[in-house]
TrEMBL record:
Protein's UniProt name: Internalin-A
InterPro entries cross-referenced by the UniProt entry: Leu-rich_rpt (IPR001611), Leu-rich_rpt_typical-subtyp (IPR003591), LRR_dom_sf (IPR032675), SDS22/Internalin_LRR (IPR050836)
Gene3D superfamilies per the UniProt record, alphabetical: Ribonuclease Inhibitor
Signal peptide extent: 1-22
Sorted UniProt keywords: Leucine-rich repeat, Repeat, Signal
Organism name: Novipirellula artificiosorum
Amino acid sequence: MPPLKLALAPLVLLLMPITVFSDQDGKTPSSLFPDAGLDAAVRAQVYNKRDTVVPLTPDDVVNVSQIHASSRTIKSLEGIQHCGSLMLLDASENEISDLSPLARLPRLQSLNLSSNQIHDIAALDGLAAMQWLDLSGNDVRDLSALKKMANLRTLYLADNQIESIDALTELRKLWSLDLADNHVSDLSALKHLKWLRTLNLDANPVQTLAPLASLQELKRLILRGTPLRDLGPLIEMCRKDFEGGRHFAPFLRVYLSEDSRTGDSLGDQSNQLRSLGVKVHVSP
């Protein structure tokens, strides 16, 4: 072989692996994660491959416990099922619709899927370790998959298409619930959630607060943009507390909007609440 060709041979061999692992069309060849955005987010948690394009393997990701994948234009979660130790996933502000890869992640405790394109959450059924869940800003209607999440503490469901919250009846450890901008009118499912401290009902067609009568741990109740014309059940709760231990009313904050105080006004009733120690905030 001529001397020039002999000199070039090692260089060609060195370049070959770079060609094999190059990224094409936004997908990483032979990767566990077909979506390049998700691959990059997971790769950031794998120290020995963090700054490479070498394909990830199941052994690489089996002990990954956190993935921060917000705003990465992710369309698919395929491959994440290999992260068997995953406890926290932030995949907010993406383009995700299919949650089926999450069904095999029983250790998940914190999941942020806000601002995606999610309609069906059936894949979350059985994730009993969940404690913090954000599904706000999607197209969710059916909450049945949440029934078994007995350890759930915080649940964000704002800006969806929810009409029924019956699936939340047994979530007895829940202390923060955001239902803003939905279509919920019946609050009966909340009557046994005695540890609930924050409840956001902003812009829902709520007609009565009667189901909340036993929720003595409430600290923040947001009622802006609702058609409520009667705060009687809330006043009665606070009056009983005012005449008793006073451990509830003085710590309660109620948020109303100015337009909910017109006509058959809530003005007098909000003043009654104030007289019982409740802090009432009225916004334009």
